[in-house]
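Bench log. Compound arrived from synthesis this morning; before running ITC I wanted a structural hypothesis for how flavin mononucleotide sits in the protein. Inputs:
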Amino acid sequence: MDTIQAIRTRRTVRSYLPQPISKEVLETLLMAAFQTPSAFDERPWHFLVVDQPERLTNLADAMEHCDMLREAQAGFLICIDPSLEKVPGFAIQDCSACGENVLLAAHAMGIGACWIGLHPVEERERALHKVCCVPESLIPFALISLGYPNEDLPAIDRTDPTRVHWNEW
Ligand SMILES: Cc1cc2nc3c(=O)[nH]c(=O)nc-3n(C[C@H](O)[C@H](O)[C@H](O)COP(=O)(O)O)c2cc1C
């Protein structure tokens, strides 16, 4: 799948098959995350891959509306490390770009993914500190649940010409 096709057809997948995701695929997702551009090349992130079923269940128990984690084969956590942020305010943008890289890389490899927003929802951030022992100095930013899709969602064309402006508003 080429990049444009991946962008055009990616959807959020919340139902997964009980088919494990190989270490190789998870390593490729890590590569995609590390390749993300960041302001001043600050790379203000840490990643935590969760592939233990019990831990995924514990996360689902600790966070409301996160039942997709019960079927997920893995979770990909992106944390902000504020100590690595050179310009205040950019780390969130860096880590957001990271999340999109992971979503697109997963989709390109046939893996379904759901971005589970953590920051700034305190209850969710706490769950990651508790269940995955994320250090207090880091901000759990986004958790991406992963699994081979158990649903086939159509691409949606969201292009909106009323939001497009050329040269002048
Ligand atoms: C910052 C962010 C936070 C999100 N948080 C959640 C979430 O907590 N739970 C969830 O089911 N989906 C979450 N999503 C997925 C969105 O609901 C989804 O991307 C949106 O409905 C558009 O659907 P699509 O991804 O299939 O195009 C989140 C997406 C983003 C970008």
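What the model suggests: The chain is about 35% helix and 15% strand. The beta strands are 45-50, 74-80, 112-117, 139-147.
ITC booked for Thursday regardless.
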